């Protein structure tokens, strides 16, 4: 981890403890925005374990293809995708996303130069992609360094526990996150890992 980031986050005494006790691994670079969005849609309102299992089943639907693309995803029947454990509403979101790629409405190249809020605006034009999904895509696919998702249950739970505040007090949680600017994406990873260590 970059020493400059660590030193900045350690200005917060509580975050300092997390940084000292948790070892973050480097994230693998992503070169498949479509598949990242599909995985994030599947993750909506599911535990990590359940989402991982279902996403694995989804990928197995493409065993006859060399690559999973928006075009062959759109060609799969809803009934076949449903067999992977994906709800019909999420199937429609996945296919909405596939159409957006086919129509060249979104791509890494189009999103990269945009501001964070503009990226959210562009992604949420697709039915099924809300702000949380867009924030996860910015954090993990676009590698934006300063993303904090106040709508993420895990992050709110971690901040609530560590800072002894009401988990529903989104305004206070966001205020606390301001101390981590401009590295809130890294802070989020420490917060998520803090929850894993309690299991």
Topology:
Layout: H1 3-9, H2 13-21, H3 33-43, H4 48-60, H5 70-75, H6 78-82, H7 88-102, H8 108-111, H9 116-123, H10 131-140, H11 153-163, H12 170-177, H13 184-198
Describe this structure in words.
- The chain is mainly α.
- The protein folds into two domains: 3-27 and 148-198, Endonuclease Iii, domain 2 (Orthogonal Bundle), CATH 1.10.1670; 33-140, Orthogonal Bundle (Endonuclease III, domain 1).
- Helices cover 61% and strands 0% of the residues.
- The protein has 13 helices and no strands.
- It is globular.
- The two termini are 25 Å apart.
- The relative contact order is 0.13.
- The model has no long low-confidence stretch (mean pLDDT 93).
What is the domain total for the residues?
A: 2
User: How many angstroms does the end-to-end distance come to?
Assistant: 25 Å
Shape: globular
CATH topology (level 3) name of the largest domain: Endonuclease III, domain 1
Q: CATH homologous superfamily of the largest domain - what is it?
A: Hypothetical protein, domain 2
Question: N-to-C SSE series?
Answer: HHHHHHHHHHHHH
Q: Largest beta sheet, briefly? A: none
Q: State the name of the first-level CATH class of the largest domain.
A: Mainly Alpha
Structure classification: mainly alpha
Taking pLDDT < 50 over at least 5 consecutive residues as the criterion, the unreliable ranges are none
DSSP helix fraction: 55-70%
Query: How many helices in DSSP terms?
Result: 13
On the 0 to 100 scale, the average pLDDT is 93
